[in-house]
Specification:
It is a single chain. 40% of the residues lie in helices and 15% in strands. It contains seven helices and six strands, in the order βααβαβαβααββα. Strand 3, helix 4 and strand 4 form a beta-alpha-beta unit. Helix 1 crosses helix 2. The longest helix is centred in the N-terminal third of the chain and has 22 residues. The radius of gyration is 19 Å and the shape is globular.
């Protein structure tokens, strides 16, 4: 008589969920090296994990997700690897224009896009426009992004407005700076995850993460699974967030 295994029940959601999660998607190159593969292969597997985790966040009811796809420092990597990442971004953008249209996910991009190829910038604009009216998860993809660069960019905007007489210098405060960040209008991240076993913020959301909870996990990004995200959500629910109070 054949045996049938019952499907494992969905884990119970914690009573407290983060509204905004940030993820430093790290470890693709090391994952590939451990398997004797070129580093670019790790980025391909990492892209598959990215798609899975985005949809799992939407399923779990997360309102905002910001992922670190390519930093301002990543241009220092071998040209072959940079080209592979950019080609993956192209492929993702083309696929997402079809795939995410069936999902209630709004796609946004944050960072300095000037160094990117014109066709990539055009695809990014199209992806944002197609998903502009979605009401579910807001997905921020950080491309050529650096936290210090973002703060400097916001400061330049304030300086230009002040020089033009549009903003009294005395009105420049934390709220004014926040309003000129790439994530303006969104809540700051409550939880930031870093798989890969590294313990650094790596210039990611420096301004916005002032009171974020961090969870570091010894898992290379291509091996990251929805169950790992659920474990991080459970850990977040156990934290006591005091925001400098008692």
């Amino acid at each position: 008589m054949p045996l049938f295994r019952k499907k494992a029940p969905e884990p119970e959601l914690p009573s407290v969920l983060p509204e905004h999660i940030g993820i430093i998607m790290d470890g693709n190159g090391r994952w590939a090296k451990k398997r004797g593969l070129p580093r670019r292969a790790g980025h391909g597997y990492g892209a598959q994990t990215f798609r899975t985790i985005v949809k799992h966040c939407e399923k779990r009811g997360i309102r905002y997700l910001t992922v670190y796809a390519f930093s301002t420092e990543n241009w220092k990597r071998p040209q072959e690897e940079v080209d592979a990442i950019m080609n993956l971004l192209r492929d993702y953008l083309k696929e997402s224009l079809a795939d995410f249209q069936t999902e209630n996910i709004r796609t946004r991009f944050i960072g300095n896009f000037e160094p990117l190829a014109p066709d990539i910038r055009a695809l990014m604009r199209e992806a944002e426009e197609v998903t502009r009216d979605k009401t579910g998860l807001t997905l921020n993809i950080a491309v050529n992004y650096g936290g210090r660069e973002e703060i400097a960019h916001a400061a330049r905007l304030l300086a230009e407005e002040a020089a033009a007489g549009k903003l009294p210098p005395g009105d420049i405060d934390e709220q004014a700076l926040s309003a000129r960040m790439y994530t303006a209008g969104q809540p700051d991240p409550d939880l930031i995850l870093r798989p890969s076993g590294e313990y650094r913020t790596s210039n990611f959301l420096l301004w916005q993460s002032a009171y974020a909870e961090y969870v570091f996990m010894d898992i290379l990004w291509p091996d990251f699974r929805p169950a790992d995200l659920d474990m991080a959500l459970a850990e977040y629910a156990r934290r006591s967030r005091r925001f400098g109070g008692v």
